[in-house]
Fold this sequence. Notes:
The chain is an alpha+beta fold. 18% of the residues lie in helices and 28% in strands. It folds into two domains: 3-51 and 72-127 and 486-621, Jelly Rolls; 170-437, Rossmann fold, CATH 3.40.50.
Amino acid sequence: MRKEYLALLAAGCVAANAASVNYDLLGRKGSKMNSPMVYKNVDYSKVKKNEVQKVGSSLENKALAKTGMADGISAIEGFFDSRYSQYNRPYYLRSFNSKGNLRPCPNVEYMPCFYDTYAYIEASNEVFINTYTRPVVNPPYTSSGAWYNPANQSFHFYITSRGTNTDYFVDFNGLRNDLSDAGVAQIASGGDDVGVYMGANAIPRRLDYNPETVDYVRYSYGDQFDNYSPEYETRDSRTYSLIRKASAYVSNGVEKNHSVVYVGSTQPINPADQRPQVYIGVRNNNFRKTRTYDTPARELDNFIYENRTIEFVPAGNYGLDNSNTGYLNQKAHAANAITVGAVRFNPSAGFNPSNGSFNPNQGSIEIANYSSNVTHDRGSEKPEIYNFSHFVTSDQGRAYYSNTNSNTKYYYYPYYDGTEYAAAYTAGMVSNLLASNQFYRWHPEVVKALLLSTDGRLISNSGDAVTNTVPSYKALTFNYNGTNAYYDVHSRFWNGNIEQLKSRVYNDRNEIWFILPTVGPAWSHLKAAIAWLNHGDDIANLGGQIPQDFDLYVYGSNDADNMYTWDKELGRSLSSYNSFEKVDFTTEYYQYLKFRIVLHSDQATGNRHGEVVLGFNLSRAK
């Protein structure tokens, strides 16, 4: 048997022995001090006796719904490895029933459970809310909403750039194909369609001389839209258009899309019941600046935690005003969301302003001066991701008369700039990932770790930003065999009771360990990241602080037989406030990589204490 296969087996084998209870911790992680803390519904007689809380208790069963799993399942873990092709089974999945027993693998004669793509989908459907693998696209009517074309009522006006007169707006198709590497990515034409929910104040219109509503805008009856505001209509029309453009692929010479956009003025109702299923959200409406974690962020965190949608939120465009330092859009403070800032391409040479053409090898990528960002104050650092803005599309400019004043014209020009379009662009890119690789559905924590750890175009003025690169299509798209021609990617998740998912308890703290064969040749540069979900009520009760605190360690080793030994520590991330950790490192000359994830503290309250929704990703660009 190959060493790599043995290593993957070892990676999935988590010790099932009973261990001492990890005491709750009080205070910030930075102090790293143990301090007992009283929590509701915890049996402290068992804590004193160093016993594990009863698995399958009413306390744990009440927590099942919030972790997104079916009744009778208390914990699940799985991984996807783009390099693993034996039996065409790059997926691994196992789960525990409510009594804490490992569930057998269906139709697989060995443990742990390796699957091909479709077997993985079937297995995951047993433990997650139903995943529709072949959705019916564009139904005329459903019980919860309809495809609808309202009467033509349009206002359009000219929006100037948020930057200076020297701002460059490059052609979107060139930006997508060259700077974002869509031209060399393997965007799957056979992937499933992915539902994308778009928060909107107005119903989107076509961005051309014909102001009709775009085809197949879906929303629920009862949603209230403002179709008389030029600003709302233009912004929401652009957002819709950009999601579609970003998810486009060409099949037999015809441009098609993986994203089917649902438009709403409020929270989507039952995203799992839509066809195609809604996995992605773009929160581009109801903006308001704030420096604190308040109700909109709390509600969005709760929504993500309970529905497991991948939500993209624009950071905000408050960077130009010195008085707005440290401000974000309200929802951008949501710890579970992926907050997106804006970058622009400054060609410095080789740019033709008459047609927007440029040379992608000349110039630099810079954080836009209007893009909001915050360092740590009382919550997780934001934004986690930057993506492109400052581009012009192929949409035609147009002018319309006001419905109330035939002599008044409003102008629209197809120039995009702002963090709202960077967020929409990222959502469109990620819809291609979910369409072609089902592993990432239901896992916003894994998608965030993936975006944090993939190499892309370098941001020249990133400074102390969380990430210094812009995601690319070639880092986010896979074919149905799970292979990636440009990146080695290994993703994992752990969901449920930590007592069942842990590898060991060390220094009174639960730890998850796993081992992988070294990725690439000696001294390869790799990035690893973890991210985890937290309930908004717990964050709010702590004044915006993250209730669970994980640490990430990476070790190099030439010993695959002993999990808890290593030759050298290659990197660590021990922030005391983020809902993620990230490590950049080189493999040096070691044959194996050992990863150690420590639950350093857990201040989640009630039945959420001890429940984890944790994701991991490791990436190397070839």
